Fold this protein.
Amino acid sequence: MMDKNIVLAVIFGAAAVVGAMETVYQIYRLTVMDAAARGLKHPKLWGLLAANGNNSSGLLLYLIGRRNYPMNSIDSRQLVVMEKRKKAAGIGLVFVAVGAIGLLVCLGRVGL
């Protein structure tokens, strides 16, 4: 019985890690697209800054800094891509939540 819980814990932990990686990647891509559409210099750097950080301080810095730059050049295709990336980031967050809850339940049963 204990081996089954450990295997499940590894599966849930992997789901949480994959979900977190997917969410960070989608935030990076969304920030790069948004920064480029607003005409900010170095959109990839802004993407790295927004995706990085222990407490999302980079994302907050980007969101505050972009207020001075209205969205200039974005077409309907880019808007569709941005919506898909937002949904993918949400799915990644669901994986993180389910993985974390499942991991805690499995580790609670093992007694760790």
About this structure: The radius of gyration is 18 Å. Residues 1 and 110 are 9 Å apart (CA to CA). The mean pLDDT is 90.
